[in-house]
Fold these 2 entries.
Entry 1:
Amino acid sequence: MTARLWNRKTRAALLILPLALFIGIFFVWPLGIMVKQSVLDDAVLHLLPRTTEAIAGWDRTAPPTEAMQAALIADLRAADDEKAVGDMVRRLNSAQSGYRTLMTKTLSAVAKPETGPLLTDVDKRWAQPAFWIAIADALEPMTDRYLLAAVDLERNKAGEIAGLPDGASANRTIFIRTFWIAAVVTFFCVLIGYPYALLTAASTGITRTILLTAVLLPLWTSLLVRTAAWFILLQEQGLINGFLLSMGAISSPLPLIFNRTGVVIAMTHVLLPLMVLPIYSVLLTIPTNLMPAATSLGAHPLRAFLHVLLPLSLRGVISGALLVFMTAVGYYITPALVGGAGDQMISSVIAFYSTQTANWSMASALGIVLLVITLILYVVYVQLSGRTSVNGRM
Amino acid sequence: MVDYHIRLDGVTKTFGALRVVDNLRLDIVRGEFLSLLGPSGSGKTTILMMLAGFQDATEGTIYVDGHMINDIPSHRRNMGVVFQSYALFPHMTVAQNVAFPLKMRGVGRAEIDARVNRALDMVQLAALSERRPAQLSGGQQQRVALARALVFEPGVVLMDEPLGALDKQLREQMQLDIRELHGRLGLTIVFVTHDQSEALTMSDRIAVFNKGLIEQIDTPRMIYDHPATRFVAEFIGETNLMEGEIAGREGGEALIRLDSGGMLRVRDRAEFDAGRRVLATVRPEKVELSEAPAAINSIPVAVTDSIYQGDHLRVQLQGPGQRLVARRDRRAAEWTPGAKINATFAPEDCWVIVP
Amino acid sequence: MAGKLISAVFGVLAVCFLLLPLVVILPLAFTSSQFLIYPIPSFSLRWFEELFTTPVWRDSIVNSLIIGAGTTILATVLGVLAALGLREKLNFISAPLNTVFLLPMVVPAVVLGVGMQILYAKLGLSSSYAGIIIAHTVIAIPLVIVSVANSLQGMDTRLELAAASLGAGPAATLRHVTLPLAFPGIMTGAVLAFAVSLDEVVLNIFLAGPGQRTLARQMFATLRDSISPAIAAAAFLFIAGTVLLTLLVLLARRRFSGAR
């Protein structure tokens, strides 16, 4: 490589560097932290540092050594974070039943200075390896329990992956609900968006301008404004109910808001442009004389459509559908504002864990599941549309 | 002593496995108009790009006035470049475009104005100085590009197919204009073109390129009359090629036995040994047609077509084992297709090359 | 004939569906009523007054402008530099970087919110203007990159070669040729960055404190709690702002294409 070429490349690299650093620190790193947070489990490790050392050489079958027992006593005496201790006990109890009572007894015993050095004096159960195995497992810094819990799974006592008992968690239900809402919205977007794109591509002059403007204007309008607008339209005293009542079509207001209907209507409206535009751009590439050519060859217009236009425009439909579905899956604002309690999507759950309970591990685990799903959809979308840019905002 | 202005020494340019320019040695004389002529992909534009400093030579050295310039960036090479599509700055007026190189050189405002006016006068565009490039015709844009490349008085002007986008009439006018400017300003011009008639019209010398190598470099007359290779013979103008071998020598002339039968007498050249395979080339305009066979160099042919082309008549012929073309004066007798006649030419009009 | 009628009816209905929500919200900004409902009893500017005099609304507007301006500057500078650099093909670097730079557009805001919340807790950026501006910049970057890269791609590269041959060094070429020609794209990118920042709610919920409450965030909160016509007034501001910005971009483009 010549010196001048080298200079040019260096200059280019220096131009990219600031953004690369910025995106590295404020985009890639947070996602990395999330991954780490979702598999990291060092709460018990922090609480029991001495026990961690003492238990290191233990073979999980022999009776607990004196050193292990003394270390645990010292750790429990030093532990002053009641919430952390409570979390630990809950966790140990879920791995080994009986731990709650054992710990209550032990904790009050170690509070007295004369206890020790043997825990077996406090309770005979401390002689059983099973209770120590639970501690040893809890000391592992890596865990898959958050990721498993994100999809309503856990490890049972044998260490196998099993479903959570019914009613213990609703993540899976919410994921299924999220996909279902996204699918229904995608369906309606195709239903309205495909004929709309056909109409736009077939029209000319002022009609085409109006049709295109009608799609682009909402895209350019704030998501909040659009959601607020649907609020006005859908509420009990809203315009739609008012109109239907005055027409005599209904005798009492329809429940259109704070339920699934409202969410689907508002999200369809918000995401419709993302469906229309990819289809429209594909339709533009199809020569306009194809349909007349097909009909001139004797094909019924419907057959001509099915055999000529539909297959050619299918790529646009699939691109649009993926784009709409991918965006819908991560939606938060619209369901939060026009949906009811039963219409919250997975984003709401993540936001709940993150902002309400500060359970970052759980929020991260759920976030990673959502991220992976979104990225898979994106990769398919890119492969399909052969480009890396997305025509729209999240 | 010949004053070499630019010297390319062993210059090679590769793109991956492709050798676009292959170990090129080329001297460009001060003040000459040199055309680089060849089909697309022959490496001629790449040479221009390397001279301008837009691309780096993979190997080899480029000298200007005896100084190596390989590592000098474009903006310090002080060469005027005229691009195929003119590359005028669309956001600047004509005057601003022409002033740009002076501004970059820190010339004072008053002097810039004076020199810009002079340059625009030279290309007869002074009246349009406040227009934007988009408001100009192709020919006017071309002249702005020329003024911009000349206003800072570079020693060398590089032109990359500058007339390619113009229609025929305008192109011929611009050819003469550029030739005239070249003579008046004493510039060294390197001119890339794929149009052989343009190269013949304008150049002091032509370098014919093929696949990254120079096939021949010489004056237009030599290139046309005495092509060095089959490629040059075929690329420059139209020609008739006849394959054969040297049969012997006789009275300062060489005898060629054609593969199609028959003997040709041509001017002798020392390197022709008996038995050597050769190609005899005759330009169509040197081919005479007659009903009676001539004494020497007479090939019996049948007329297949006779086409009136305005300034001349083009006669297609079928000889023994090969086709021939003759270009006759338009007032000459028209031969009807099917007529059996003879094609003939003088020994000095036949040039022999080694295939 | 029937087919034509059906398409016409469908077209009208679809356009209504798309535009009706935008149309109905605007008049409510001028209602004198306490409620966000039709019919409007009489017109009044009381909700705009509320917007500009109540501290929560006024502060949120100011915050939106501060954060929007910060985001626009940061995203445009970083995005333009990177888009310029990305024109040079750097082995094994350009393509992956390009993808990564566009990913913030794809990653759900909630996911990014969780990650940034944890990071900000470590870095001490929570509840700060800088933190919010950075977060908004992350999601605005793809739009800046795409619009600037588009305008750079559409540019004849020979113009830069011409500039170099005429004596302009890299910096002068950038200043006199590349940037002026990429200006419409840069302008579009900057406006998009501002729009993204203005509209962003999710990241604000995760990262902002009460001190950085933006107009969008305030609208979100109001829609959740007390539905007041101030929302319609705020929406009116949003739409007016969008129209203004769009006109600005169109004007800049018009001026430029007039120059062509």
Entry 2:
Amino acid sequence: MTTAHANLTYYKELNEQLRQIDDTEITIENAVGQRYLGCGSSGKTLTIHGTPGNGLGQYLNGSTIEVFGNAQEAVGDTMNDGDIIIHGSAGDVCGYGMRGGRIFIQGDCGYRGGIHMKAYQDHFPVVVIGGRAGSFLGEYQAGGLILVLGIGQDGAFPAGNFCGTGMHGGKIVLRCDQAPAGLPRQVLVNEASPEEAASFAPYIDDFCRLFGGDAAALKAQKYYVLSPNPEAGYHQLYTYES
Amino acid sequence: MLQKEGQVRIPAGCAISGIFHKDGTRETGERIIASIRPMHDRSNGLGGGFAGYGIYPEYADYYAFHVFYDTPEAKAACEKEIEHHFDIVDLSKIPTRRHPRITDEPMIWRYFVTPLHTKLTSSQLDEREFTSRFVIRINHTLDGAYIFSSGKNMGVFKASGFPEDVGEYYMLENYEAYSWTCHGRYPTNTPGWWGGAHPFALLSTTVVHNGEISSYDANRRFIEMFGYSCDLLTDTEVITYIVDYLGRKLGLTYREIANVIAAPFWSTIEKQAPTECERLTYLRNAFASLLVTGPFSILVGYTGGLMALNDRLKLRSMVVGEKGDTVYIASEECAIRAIEPTLDRIWAPRGGEPVIVNLHDGGKQ
């Protein structure tokens, strides 16, 4: 394992240093807002202490990034494959446009989590949020899974306003005691069926393996699944269809 | 030749940072400079600035005018005006150090003044209105003179450059404030110039802003009906006047001001309890033209307090950290961690949810 000390090193220089390291296991100490860490990489394991900057793991292509601290904006933007694990909270627009790989957030995520996520062939993006999510969660979601465990929310709706606005694919799963009300018309709400619960249970196991917690107890609780409403979808396209 | 709003478009972010000591402890400008540094890339070198509160205790009862002059003639004309309306108890160049990246500086002067008694009496205005009208008139009519700071026991220091360089240029290590705000500029629609750097100030109200106001012209047209004049060629100026108008002239609280400029959507207002719904409906209807739309995260500094606010859609990042009696607010968490690695609490306020901090003893030091 190779250790790099970030401190106030300029992000370009730090990323250049990281790319020069042959070792597949790299630890970064004291990150202070350096952007684009691990960006586009594959086959690496990055452990980051401190506060990584915006665009952490953008275009990630198979590496594992584990952060001990909070992450800032645009975590895993357009990522393709790999895992991002955050022992803390994430800022706004995490998982924007991601089309594969998994993001696990122990705490909360900011506004616009998982917007424009899409599944692609055998790629299936997953974002798991331990606490609560900000507004516009899964806006224009086209595929994949967003799972909000609502830990510490006392069974309250664990997201903000305009959840799933414009979604037309994928699923948002929320742990809460009552069916969320006032959601946009593009969204259907159902209590998770046993089959659905079985499909997201492995991510709860993984979450608890990463951050601790009682997976069995979590799985035993009530979950609501938000999916696109086929009746309220976008029927009229700009392109010509015969 | 300066190009005005609409004549030039420079695509782009910005950085803001603030430190507030609720117990009134004062600190030099060194940490606020260290805080903005890791956010270097949110700025592009076309503007940086600071506001410090509590920095002039020896002149606490006098308005401190900080003025940019383009020419000696503008200086002579402005000083004549100041002398005609105010008693100047002290004046000096604002101390600066030569800095390789801060160039083309105007003349930068500071005056500690108090309105002439006879002038004030005959104007039939209160002291703050008298002073603010004077500042607006100079900035609007006197070419080459900009009073960019006009409060009591506070001051704005700004320039064209990166904020960390601007802080060094103004030697902020020599000032002690209980509240600091800072801004790194990345101009979007308007030119980078000294007067256009943030903070924007009128009397003791200052605003630093990360974002871009799409309602600028609607807000400007409305606020200019009340004697304000938007002369500084950038959108943030209008927020300063809105806060001054609603707060100083109409007596709204900072929370109410936040509910006006970042009014919730009607769909959100409808979900509130009846009294809150009525309150928000009233504010949104009464001040419809002061709704600020488009992305913004702002820090509003005032005597004895600080308000942080995001637009209702939260189109800009902002985090708040607490450590004991000190509150830190910044565009990015790294800016806070750079100066305070261990915090008691850190969170991201929701869009339109103001964070307001005041000195413990009701705004007095």
